[in-house]
Amino acid sequence: xxxxxxxxxxxxxxxxxxAGCGDSDAGEDVHEHGSVVVTQWNDATELFLEYPHLVAxxxxxxxxxxxxxxEDFKPIRSGSLTVRFETGSGVAHEFRIDDVARDGIFLLDPxxxxxxxxxxxxxxxxxxxxxxxxxxxxxxxxxxAEVPHAAEEGDGGIAFLKEQQWQIPFAVVPARRDSVRRTIxxxxxxxxxxxxxxxxxxxxxxxxxxxxxxxxxxxGQSVRRGQVLAILSPVAQEGGFAEVRARVERxxxxxxxxxxxxxxxxxxxxxxxxTRHDLEVARAQAQAMGPGGAAGDYRLHLASPxxxxxxxxxxxxxxxxxxxxxxxxxxxxxxxxxxxxLPVSNAVSIPPGTGASFTVEGADSVRRTSRLVSVGRVLDPxxxxxPVTFEVAEGAxxxxxxxxxxAAVPVGGTAVGVLVPNRSIIDDNGTPVAFVQAGGETFExxxxxxxxxxxxxxxxxxxxxxxxxxxxxxxxxxxxxxxSGGEFAGGHSH
Length: 494
Fold this sequence. Notes:
Elements (H helix, E strand, L loop, with lengths): L6 E12 L14 E9 L3 E8 L1 E2 L7 E7 L4 E2 L4 E8 L2 E8 L7 E4 L7 E10 L5 E11 L16 E2 L2 H4 L5 E4 L1 E16 L5 E5 L4 E2 L14 E2 L4 E5 L8 H23 L5 H21 L10 E4 L4 E6 L6 E2 L4 E6 L4 E8 H4 L9 E4 L6 E2 L2 E5 L9 E8 L11 E18 L4 E3 L2 E9 L2 E6 L1 E5 L3 E6 L6 E5 L1 H9 L11
Parallel strand pairs: 4-11
Antiparallel strand pairs: 1-2, 2-3, 3-5, 5-6, 5-9, 7-8, 7-10, 10-11, 12-31, 13-34, 14-23, 14-28, 15-22, 16-21, 17-20, 18-19, 20-22, 23-27, 24-25, 24-28, 26-27, 28-33, 29-30, 30-31, 30-34, 32-33
Helix pairs in contact: 2-3
């Protein structure tokens, strides 16, 4: 059954709409006439209709026609509704309602002259959406005596009125029979990929001059590779940057002079080679410390080794830093890794090319990884798990390294059955439950037996049937209504 043809007809409702045959002769059976309740969904709208049984040639009372936009589950606020009573020979009666009586509700008191069974078509034309619903069988009785008795009242489920649904974020979707990949739920963490997080430390003692470092980048600012992060002035220190820089300049002069002497035949080739070697060693030592300023500037310029964002800054302009002090942490936010801990039996069976789905703390949206990076080969003796790492490429900029995550990792195979969105499943004191919309204003709490899931949908082994409408948004309010004995919903205002 497709969504466009879902039709739930709740027969004679327990709500009586009018008194019975009080004017009949004495001794005649007097009874209450019931109402008919219809709930129907299509791709555009939900129809919830309550109407009294029809008697030929008689105005029997209002049809309360509720129409909800399936796009946002808000009431239809304007538009016209055409209601056609059809027989095999064509349209017997047509009624047009030019506008809503109030948001979401059209009212109609149709008078049908002839008894019989009719096919009723309701056609909505609205700026919000156009829609069409069909009631395949509507009975019109010849006399009040033929109208069925009102049904006995019983457990009508959880009452949650349209007026309440329309005031809150609310949504339902049909449960679908489909296949889902088998997964295992696992805790995880967002971590920086290898090479995407670098630390910049002071290679030597120095003074971070206040004026020179006044515009040093702060936490959260973007930096490019090679951009100067901090400038350190030299201090009296053997092997310091100033001393190494001065030695390079002295050896450059010495090498130039020796080369001239060698060309003049005044020194041997060996002497020139030794001088050049000493210069190369000094240059390598200076390059390892970092670049300097212009000629004569003996301050050390610390540059960013990657393009990224400053995640940490640990120095104060004007202060002294010691060799080895951490000054900056730079991260590349364009990629991130999701690292999860899996039992060995599951980790070794992950299919090649597998991607995981996950959610992070503070967010409900489900994200996906782009590829499997690695599977650990060292067992954690405490948790008896191994680390499995996935790459997150799309949307990585919005993640924060160190965030905790909950992942669903495919472990091979599929399960076939009724699937519901994960957001429809509620943990009710340790019991997984969901709420099903049995009718327009009637809901049922279902205890679920869950199977495999892919992080977005979960296989329901028992508790929900295919094509039943499951609450995905607003389930908490429905739960409150179930706990309040119907008082939460309040009275009906049709």
